[in-house]
Amino acid sequence: MARKTVDVEFVLNAVNEILKDSLCPPERRKGMINVLETILVETGNYKGFRYLGESEVPAYEKPGIWDVTENRFDDTDSTRVQYF
Length: 84
What we know:
Number of helices: 2
Strand content: 5-15%
């Protein structure tokens, strides 16, 4: 069987879309984050991340950071992030 590879940027973009748009439980997104961070670190491609705001996640879902509040991380979802 021939060895197949996948482009790291493809995985990065695919996981970023899931983290932004999915309605799956946060535990599932945490698993995706763990795999993505491992791939990025092991390939020398880790460049950090940012939290997604209210306008970047599905309606009625908690953001990674509140856009306009004093307590920007109160009652947020730490899996709503975007990796660079």
